[in-house]
Amino acid sequence: NHGLATVPLVLASSLLEPRMSFIGMAVFYATATVSSLCVAVPLGAYLGPHLCMVAGMALFGAYVGGFALAICISASWLQWPLWLVASSAGGLAGGLVWTAQGTYYSAVAAALASATGKPAEVITGTLAGSFSFVFLSLEVLAKVCFSVLQHLHVPMHAIGVGYATLACLPAAAMFVAKPLACVSGSKVLSSPMSAAAEHVHRMLSLWRDPTVWLVSPT
Predict the structure, then answer these.
(1) pTM of this structure
(2) Other C-beta atoms within 10 Å of 185: how many?
(3) Which of 15, 33, 63, 148 makes an SS bond possible with 90, Cβ 3.0 to 4.6 Å?
């Protein structure tokens, strides 16, 4: 799902007007920042990591679908709103997915460690290696396949529909998957706004550490 969502970021500049693609990417990253800071924490606390990931994956599907529509439409006046709305959905999805999957990942590692009796560090390392390999492999494969399909003169609308469908399938699979009991979430919150404010405060407190500024470009 996330691997497919990286395709528009790479190909937008070659398939859309340069100015349109760059503004869309700026909207994507700006929305992702706001989502990570102010949306993901309170929404994740309310829905739980499982449903938060479902929502993020569905928005990633909408991002890919919006990109597919934008590249299939020749009218610039219609491309602009499609691409900008899709970019906003993709940025919101990025904040939700990356925040929620950290909690989900930790819960899965703890459950596996409890079930197998292996040290949590071993389970965490194994899962991290598997995740990195699968994620990067599928990301590269998605981009290569898009280029190959273009080279084979497959109609752009067919490629777009195919990629949008593939991007939505993981959201559906995650939705029907049984949530882990330890990450099912709670409907009782002190205050979603307080959670967002606390998250922003913690982020700002890290800015005093020069290590953050040295590592951030990587």
Answers:
(1) 0.80
(2) 16
(3) 63
